[in-house]
Amino acid sequence: MSRRRNLSPLQRERARANWLDTGPDRLKINRFNHAATLGTRATVAEVAQAVAQIAATQAANRARPVEPSMRGRELRELARQRADMMPQAVERITTQAAAEVAGLEDPERTIYHRERFFALLADVLAPLDARPFVDTLQDLGGIIARVSCAYWWRRQLTRAAIAKREAAGREASEVCAKRRQPYVTHDTVHRMLEQDERNRATLEGTELENADGQVFNLGELAAKSTANPAIRRGELMTRIKGCEAWADEAGWLGIFTTHTTPSRYHATKHNGRPNPNWEAAGRPTIKDGQQWLCKTWARARSALQRRGLGVFGFRVAEPHQDGTPHWHAMLWVEPSAAEREGIAGSMPGNACKAAALLRAYWLADSGDESGAAEHRFKAVALNPGGAAGYCAKYISKGIDGHGATLDEGHHDEEDGAKIVMEQGQLYEGATRVRFWARAHHIRQFQAIGQPPVTAWRELRRVEAAALQFAPEGLRLAWDATNKTAEGGADWGLYLTAQGGAASGRGYAYAVATEKREVVGRYETATQAKHVGVLDKAAGFVARSSRKEWKARGTWSPEQREQARARAFEWSACGASLPRTRVNNCTQDKGPTRPQAPRAVHCDGLRGVDRFAPWLREATGEHQTPPPHHHHEPI
User: How many CB atoms lie under 10 A from the CB of residue 421?
Assistant: First the structure.
């Protein structure tokens, strides 16, 4: 008889618990389960105690925190365990929430039950390294299906492992040029390179088919979309050039600005040593730095609107060598009436006013710390016709390093010092910048005060035949978005067709949507699907040439007929305006701004501080920035 058979049931149960303590192995657990049924010398109480011990060990294993070093198999196993434990947790949450609202009457009971369910579920998910759900009136069945799914948990745990690894790297001062790990750690670079390779293999191994029987490889389709870095960069440059052309024609004044965070958001100095201000501030994360930039910009933007200083343009988020974000923005400012008429006066131009106001907001927080006056906010005037060149480098650095960036390399400027990043296969700057944005969920490029690019992309899917009875304005917008024999797409003409820049929500054209039921992994939901472009004033909808795609071989004859019928029977009555949420921004009560004639530009942005008296009088709510003696463009 083998040694295993000589063990008592209690010994076998304890052995199972030991295996679970060091990491569960399903094959070994099943063997011990089988062995435990062979002996009968243990009492019922001893077996019950052993079973309770195993259950406690399993619960501890399932709830153990994610470690930064976890990868692959470990994360998959932990995700499976978390998914297995959630049905019981959801049942407990549901029972508790129902008990708390038992004395209430409908509809108050239903509303409060949802609130308590989401609150209790958040209390369970947060310690397990998963993001809590936000109540958006979605089906609770879909949420329960998600938290009970190992695939959903794997995404949550992978995200948590990367976040913890990056946090540990910043705490150890690993993320810096001195340690040859700029922007992100090597571990995160390896993770994401492996993930990109898995994604590429999945896309190339997946074939999609439409109702007409056309079959395409998903990798080929992705290469023709903005998922392709070259196409994404080309579209951004087209938009930047179009904005520049429109602004020059309308006489708007251009400025190029740099926005950085206070010292407390920087974990590491340029020499690789820890920053004591970061330690004293409680070690704020990279996401905290990005949120500070977003909040400061939101306040400054509202102040600009209250002063009647309309702006539009682009902003680019980039990392410093230690991963702390900073922004570059290319902005055009609406000229004043005096500037339109070329009248010289003592009042500063609108571009100078906008720069002074932005500077005041950026220095309102810790503006007296060392280096803040010189480096926290900078602005230079843009010459007409050369603005796109300022932004091209930053666009390329954040996507694929195309063009001059490859020769120049990546560098960081901190306290006036230039830090050059080492280049190479593992150190290629654009890849690390892209992975930095992905790891910390930071939006790299953001349009400001422009019509939505979604309508632009949808117009490119509209065929000429769909515009047979379209209004003239929609035809002009369509011409602007599509290449012709005379030239390529023109974002400037599209901007003109939409009503100009800085028009708030008053743009002329929007994406038309149609509500359809979509069967997903977790639920069947009603979603708004893009079907064309809507002319808001005329109520006319130009249908786009979209097709429905499914995995090859999954179409039924009935589904094919329904898809074809929908393509022919679709009409404007089935379309709706895009879904929008409440806009808390300062609203412009006046009409859409007209295009202005070419204006006389102000005298650059030299000595913005000389406009401090105007700024203090105009705002009445901000301190004058700390004085300094820098008289070059700032």
Answer: 18
Q: What are 182's two structure tokens?
A: 């700029």
Helix ranges (H only) for 175-311 are: 186-204, 218-223, 229-250, 276-280, 286-306
| 126: its two tokens | 């947060």
Note whether 474 and 320 are within 8 A (CB): no
Q: Among residues 329, 330, 333, 331, which one has the least CA distance to residue 310?
A: 333
Mind telling me the catalytic residues? 390, 394
DSSP 467-525: GTT--HHHHHHHHHHS--SS-S--HHHHHHHTT-SS-TT--SEEEEEEEEEEE-SS-EE
pTM: 0.81
- Rounded Cα gap, residues 542 and 32, in angstroms: 67
Other CB atoms within a 10 A radius of the CB of residue 609 amount to 19
How big is the CA angle at 92 (ends 86 and 98), to the nearest 5 degrees?
Answer: 130
Report whether 86 contacts 125 (CB < 8 A).
no
| Per-residue pLDDT at 271 | 83
Give one word for 24, left, alpha or beta, with left for phi > 0 and alpha for psi -120 to 50. beta
On the 0-12 / 13-18 / 19+ scale of CB atoms within 10 A, 89 is middle
pLDDT over threshold 70, residue 533: yes
Distance CA 319, CA 266 (A): 11
Average pLDDT over residues 417-442: 76
**What's the average model confidence in pLDDT over 597-603?**
40
Name the strand (E) or helix (H) holding 162: helix 150-171
